[in-house]
Amino acid sequence: MKKTTVGGSAIALGGLAGCTGNSGGDGSSGGDGSSSDGSNGSDGSDGSMTSMASIANRQNSYWLSWEKGYLEACEAFGYDTNVQTNNGEVQTQQQQFDSAVSNDADFIVGQTYTNAAAITLAETLVEAGTPGVLAVTIADWYVPQDAGGEYVTFFTPHFVNHAYSAAKMLFESMDGSGKFVHIEGNRGTAPNIGRNKGVDLAMQEYPDIEMAGPRQPGNWIRSDSRSVMNDKVSQFGDEIGGFFGQNDAVALGGITVLEENDIDVPVVGIDASEPGLAAIDEDRMTGTVSGMGPWQAGWSVAKCHDFLNGHTLSDAEKMMSFNAPVCVKNPDDWTDTIDRLPVVDAADYNEAIFSGETPYDWKKMSVVESGEDAWDPQIDMQPMSLDGMKEVLDWKEDDKPSGYSLPGAYTDSAVQEETAQQYVDRFQSNPLK
């Protein structure tokens, strides 16, 4: 089976983790549907099954780990691979989708970068009859059923739970009192809004915790976060008792400024990037919540494989969220504090995700391959009800289009409970524990 490579060698892991991938790219991708190494993706003319994956760049470990999961899962299911980098540019991504469908790709997986792009890319899939999974970002008051069956499913991290858990860890490390700096990501994005909600929720439980001035955007990157932290240190100095970075890049950018000013305080991040995990090992960070890049990619491939082989997800399964582990140095110190997410050893996680093959059984994620009573998502997943969409994706009733109504599965409590229980029952193994 043909596999995409870079420079004729295996993909190298390393770099800076990001959230949405808008923090820069490698500049190697084009809009002509070619692979980022310059080779053409297979058009299936030799009878092979083909796919295309859309990632932002190869400049951070989140996207490198996502790509790794995609390559492994495609190998497990027998699909040729074609990885496209788009630098977070909507027009480039659209061109790559257009090229992939014109070359008869069997499926496409990836993430979108604006709400509007979620609609146009989904319409591209449906109009071409090409199944695909678009994750993490979706337009307000828009669900896969609004596009059509080829939009196989949408799923996203439970941003609120992830940030709430990281914030609780930070506040406990601060002994429940004092001022902390919160540098956010890009304003107006679902991950940023959800994570802000999670921090606010945790603050309600710690009345003696105070934010050191208003949040300022670090835009998911180190350089902007350094600038913000310089301002915070100038304003608050030794009053700073902790730091919440909206992702690991933000956390690491801010840490350097704190260290330059001899301010040694607890720091948490989100993404579980290689640099973030290294900072935990070096006692520079307390913890980080995983973005589960490899799992996201592999789950997307598995659901497209199921669709191509006749298994269709129920309405309630079309919108899902997942909970990811918190990575720390000493898990036993945190299992009684962190109750919404699993807690794992950061060094073990680093080994499992970034060294050699990942620990997932990709075929086990497939209903077609494993059977209705034996498939296993290998992660904690939940269907998203209307209330969940409002909480995690920040949908507001005032923004709902006139006359719009969701499929009944999203407001039917019995259907939601049945689907949630199904995923509880099927979650039999956690490869990261």
Low-pLDDT segments: 1-43
Give the radius of gyration. Answer: 21 Å
CATH architecture of the largest domain: 3-Layer(aba) Sandwich
Oligomeric grouping of the chains: single chain
| Main sheet summary | 8 strands, mixed
Shape: globular
The top level CATH class name of the largest domain: Alpha Beta
Task: Classify the helix fraction into a percent range.
Answer: 25-40%
Task: Find the CATH topology of the largest domain.
Answer: Rossmann fold
- In CATH, the homologous superfamily of the largest domain goes by the name Response regulator
DSSP, total strands: 16
Approximately how much beta-strand content do the residues carry? 15-25%
Give the averaged pLDDT, no decimals.
89
Number of helical segments with 4 or more residues: 14
Q: How many domains comprise the coordinates?
A: 2
**N-end to C-end Cα span:** 32 Å
Structural class: alpha/beta
Can you describe what's shown?
With 433 residues, the protein is an alpha/beta fold. The chain has 14 helices and 16 strands. The protein has helices at residues 61-77, 90-102, 115-128, 144-147, 159-173, 190-204, 222-236, 248-260, 274-281, 293-308, 346-354, 367-370, 386-392, 413-426; strands spanning 49-55, 79-80, 83-85, 107-111, 132-135, 151-157, 178-184, 209-211, 216-217, 240-245, 267-271, 287-290, 319-323, 326-328, 343-345, 380-383. Strands 1, 2, 3, 4, 5, 6, 13 and 16 form an eight-stranded mixed beta sheet that branches. Strands 7, 8, 9, 10, 11, 12, 14 and 15 form an eight-stranded mixed beta sheet that branches. The two termini are 32 Å apart. The relative contact order is 0.12. Mean pLDDT is 89; it is low at 1-43.
